[in-house]
């Protein structure tokens, strides 16, 4: 059953990424790969929040959390596209743009992961505080 849930999450994650990419293709005319950057930053934030809060709260069964994290977010984000786009920028002479993209992706991923962690910790703290108040 876990394989099915992860696979189902993967289908929806890949479709979400594809649809975002298609919508940007119609309006984004610049060589900078903004869709992939945004997708990966959102994924970093969501996965960090998911691990920090949702898995500890035990709102959903472990299989569902794994399906969301490994399946949906795993298929939504894309390190391989980031790598190919970075090389493509270099090969087409956009050296500075490539460096900006690589740095924004790496540093931005760390920052958004930290923000997701902080939000998860804050939400967990508030949940525990409310549970303690309700128990008294």
UniProtKB/TrEMBL annotation:
What this chain does, per the record? Fluoride-specific ion channel. Important for reducing fluoride concentration in the cell, thus reducing its toxicity.
Q: What reaction(s) does this enzyme catalyze? A: fluoride(in) = fluoride(out)
Q: Which PANTHER family match?
A: FLUORIDE EXPORT PROTEIN 1-RELATED (PTHR28259)
Q: Which gene encodes it?
A: crcB
Could you say which protein family the record assigns here? Belongs to the fluoride channel Fluc/FEX (TC 1.A.43) family.
Q: Which GO terms describe its molecular function?
A: fluoride channel activity; metal ion binding
This protein's species is Terrilactibacillus tamarindi
User: Where would you find the membrane-spanning parts of this chain?
Assistant: 32-52, 64-82, 94-117
Stated name of the protein: Fluoride-specific ion channel FluC
Q: Which domain of life is it from?
A: Bacteria
Please give a single GO biological process term from the UniProt record. Answer: cellular detoxification of fluoride
